[in-house]
Design goal:
Layout lengths: L29 H7 L2 H6 L18 E7 L2 E6 L4 E6 L5 E5 L9 E7 L2 E6 L4 E5 L5 E5 L9 E7 L2 E6 L3 E6 L5 E5 L9 E7 L2 E6 L4 E6 L7 E3 L9 E7 L2 E6 L4 E6 L5 E5 L12 E4 L2 E6 L6 E5 L9 E4 L10 E7 L2 E6 L9 E6 L5 E5 L1
Antiparallel strand pairs: 1-2, 2-3, 3-4, 5-6, 6-7, 7-8, 9-10, 10-11, 11-12, 13-14, 14-15, 15-16, 17-18, 18-19, 19-20, 21-22, 22-23, 23-24, 25-26, 26-27, 27-28
Length: about 375
């Protein structure tokens, strides 16, 4: 069996099983006032009607994704059915965005396009909000979108791409919110898809169930190519990111990294568990000239810096024994203002519901927020 949210098989997974179906936070008329409130008011009133309260002043409840827009960091709280917004430079709390009108239902991925933030809801479509004030723009749902457990997002050239866990990619106009194509069917080779990235005219999707990556033409949403074979080194491919014409894939069970040429689909290199710095990598992101991967197993999760072109491909790895990073089942990574933010969801024996901020170059701890 496999976890449909992570795509990783139970036999090789070292992470604690997630609990699905967490009840939504109760909300009421206070939610509208909260969005308009300043930081001090919002910090004091991040509570919905009926007495339901967020676990912390920041409202973190099983944080699952993060994105940066306009100098602020947005965090999706899967169990809280909410978004937390904070200043990406200072870490100061701005607001918690929640309420029935947003239709948040286990938000699990975020994507910024222009002035808006798109939120993938595992249980119910996509929500679009304005990043400047948290106002609702629209909710995207219905049979025309072909959503089936939205679990990852990508964007390029004014379009949003929504990856569904059941095996489909929906193309949506970011300006109108209308669907303009769906990639679905056996020819695409989707098998427990976990992550998606847009590079130029192509989309790349990791398939953790079949040790493959599916390439799709983003314009037509057709012409699929399934990249598979020993030369790629795929072994439960889970995370994906791109930079400079290269597509980088984390192989959770490898443990390794695979670099693919976005233009040719051919493998450029496979990097193994260099000096033990890359055990079971899952999330990956790019920023400030480096890739960063999170390895979440056991009691000592790790964050690894990867230099795309270097004799020493992994300059450093940081774990909880290196300092009070408080890594715990890191679910997402994002770079902002020369710092790396790590989203810690939590796991058995380790408290989560926190963020770790690190220096993107040195890996030094800046702060933890919980």
């Amino acid at each position: 069996m496999s976890d449909p949210r992570t795509g990783r098989s139970d036999g090789r997974r070292r992470r604690s099983r997630r609990t699905i179906g967490v009840a939504a936070v109760a909300v009421g008329t206070l939610a509208g006032a909260l969005l308009a409130a300043g930081p001090a008011v919002a910090a004091a009133k991040s509570t919905g009607a009926g007495g339901a309260k967020h676990a912390h002043s920041y409202g973190f409840r099983s944080p699952d994704a993060a994105a940066v827009a306009g100098g602020d960091l947005f965090v999706a709280n899967r169990a809280g059915n909410s978004l937390t917004e904070l200043n990406a430079s200072s870490g100061v709390y701005v607001r918690t965005i929640f309420g029935t009108r947003y239709d948040f239902s286990e938000p699990t991925a975020l994507q910024v396009i222009g002035p808006d933030l798109f939120v993938a809801n595992w249980r119910a479509g996509v929500t679009e909000v304005t990043t400047s004030n948290g106002a609702l723009v629209r909710t995207l749902r219905g049979s025309g979108y072909g959503f089936s457990y939205p679990r990852a997002l990508a964007a390029d050239d004014g379009y949003l791409y929504v990856l569904s866990a059941k095996g489909a990619v929906t193309k949506i106009s970011a300006s109108s919110g209308k669907p303009s194509g769906i990639a679905s069917g056996s020819q695409y080779g989707f098998d427990r898809p976990t992550a998606i990235v847009a590079v130029g005219t192509e989309l790349f999707v990791t398939n953790s169930g079949s040790d493959s990556v599916t390439e799709i033409n983003a314009g037509t949403m057709k012409q699929p190519h399934v990249l598979q074979g020993g030369q790629y080194g795929f072994d439960e491919p889970t995370g994906i990111a791109a930079h400079g014409g290269g597509v980088w894939v984390t192989n959770y069970a490898g443990p390794s990294l695979t670099e693919i040429s976005a233009s040719t689909g051919k493998v450029d290199k496979v990097i193994g568990n260099y000096e033990g710095n890359l055990p079971s990598p899952a999330p990956i992101t790019f920023g400030d000239g480096f890739f960063f991967a999170a390895s979440p197993p056991g009691a000592s999760p790790m964050i690894t810096q990867i230099k795309p072109t270097a004799n020493v491909p992994m300059p450093w790895m940081m774990c909880n024994t290196n300092g009070p990073y408080k890594f715990s089942n890191p679910e997402a990574l994002v770079v902002a203002n020369a710092t790396l933010w790590v989203v810690n969801e939590g796991s058995a024996g380790l408290p989560g519901d926190s963020l770790t901020e690190m220096n993107a170059v040195t890996g030094a701890l800046i702060r933890t927020i919980d």
